[in-house]
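Lab notebook, bench 4. Still working through the backlog of constructs that have no structural model yet. Next entry is a single chain of 324 residues. Request: give me the structure tokens for it.
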Amino acid sequence: MVKAIRITRTGGPDVMSYEDVDLAAPAAGEVRVRHTAIGLNYIDTYFRSGLYPAPLPCGLGLEAAGVVDAVGDGVTTLKTGDRVAYGTGPLGAYSEAQNAPANRLVKIPDGVSDKDAAAMMLKGMTVQYLLRRTYEVQPGDTILFHAAAGGVGLIACQWAKHLGATVIGTAGSKEKADLARKAGADHVILYREEDVPARVREITGGAMVPVVYDGVGKDTFEMSLDCLAPRGLMVSFGNASGAVPPVDIGVLNLKGSLFLTRPSLAGYTATDEDLAMTAADLFDVMAKGVVTADVRQEYALADAAQAHRDLEARKTTGATVLIP
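Model written out:
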């Protein structure tokens, strides 16, 4: 038996329960990971609320770090005692331990702590595909990244600055704006007080930006389109404020022959080779000190519901981990 967070219905944080669950021995191709730290991500609230459907009852969480303590038949790449992490599931990371496919785990390199790995796998690999593959940021680019003081945003500010970009971020308070600037943002727009497209026009001398990275969703989608240069790319990768309503694609033409994509980490790490490459690139910039996890909140696993409340109320900054 292990302790885990489970849900039997979708809804608010109150649907989450902390209970004993049976954990079978790992099947062929799997290992059992005893978790030492678990990552909290906004996507977890989508599964809890039902925005992203999952068979019920189920666990929550896609990201964790820990130690292999049992190995299933046929596994040759991992052994008992290896420090490992994952950021693409399986669903159920909010638990003391979980069985996971060995080929979807990566070894944590020396010099990277379990907490940092748990906080960085999903968010860090998300930034990797956004900045290096969805739109390959080049020296001299000016980019706009919403929620720049969030877990993904702070990593993106650091990484994009390292790539030579001018980073425009948005934030909801002066305190969050200060965090984004410390992470590398050159300009931070207080979206509750300022006209975001007007400020982007001012900052860029009227040129606007070639790419907007938007993990907020409904509240920022229209303004994001208005920040793009002709033939610019709108990258809508999250729904923190709610799902984007149906879009009339004719708007993309009217606003300058714009491009629109809705990418996901799962899509960019679907193959084992892509997963290994993405994780290796992330660990490389972590080892060089280019990006740091910046874990700012820790909750006991039993308090995961409160962690969700604080996350959705935008009370958190940087990364958050749950500790079993």
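Notes after review: The chain has two domains: 2-120+271-323, 139-262. Residues 39 and 91 are 12 Å apart (CA to CA). Flag for follow-up if needed.
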